[in-house]
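Re-run requested by the PI after the first attempt was lost when the workstation crashed. Everything re-entered from the original request form. Ligand of interest: AHM.
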Amino acid sequence: MKNAEKPFIKTVERHFLDRKGNNPHATTEFSWLLSGITLATKIIASQIQRAGLLEIMGEAGRVNVQGEEVQKLDEIANDTLVRCLGYRGNVGLLVSEEDEEPHVIQDAPESGKYTVLFDPLDGSSNINANVNIGTIFSILQRDPKCDASDVMARVLQPGYKQVAAGYVIYGASTVLAYTAGYGVHMFTLDPYIGAFVLAQENVMMPTEGKIYSVNEANSRKFPIGYQKYLDWAKTDDAGYSSRYIGSLVADFHRTLIRGGVFFYPQTKKSPEGKLRLLYEANPLAFMAEQAGGAASDGTQRILDKQPHAMHERTPLIIGSKNEVEKVLSFL
Ligand code: AHM
Ligand code: MG
């Protein structure tokens, strides 16, 4: 085979620039931001792989702003993302699940155009069990009309305004999936060369899939419509299977590939739902829609929700288009 006929090896940054289409953000400057995410997640992946050897498993001994026990690896992942993204000149704000307030990197109007929001280590209660966990990210840009010093206006934007979003799943292999509004693309970390290499372009979610994914131990505390859906899904006619990992990123990844529906409704304990709108539901909803799926909070499209607080929670129903619609038909 001649060199020209061999398939190119494409990294995330190269792929993003090549697929720019009419995307006004497809600049080398933005790809520099993406490289901050790939660098950070490669460091996090290497720490997770050696977690048992480095004595970084277990609790850090404090609770975060959400009132949840922080794991040592949560702190490492958060610090790593802040350190890698904090040097990117076009990053203005960083918003993390682990931090009460945003990190203001730049507030000069001409720079710091982008806000990066992330859940540094999603599913961290699974760390000690060696179950898949992940990093979820969402990227917003500052509205030029918005006062650069108005930090909350730069953060509290509805999901349909996301410029890009994605996640990295640390599992049997480390996989990065992202969208910048032109489909969903997947990359696998090649540990020998230390790069995320293109594995699949334009990933589409099956429109149907007979799998529901929910923490069913909470089902008696769900609104009645969800309970009725679960009763129906268990009938012989419906013929569903159940899969629940307890790491949103892993449950979503399976749903993206195999189809089905994931939901985490409001419960008596979490009347607003458990999952966070800005850095869990929004980025995955953007990914789902770009792959032909759907995401709703039970009453409206996730991407249309106007956030009112940085750590706001939301009920979430996400997955194959027909499966999400089926759940909604019971509500
Ligand atoms: P985390 O971001 O602190 O890890 O919490 C979110 C996680 C999700 O990954 C997962 O879907 C959910 O919490 C599981 O919750 P539960 O244990 O109540 O089923
Ligand atoms: Mg999470």
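Saved to the shared folder this time. The chain has two domains: 12-200, 211-330.
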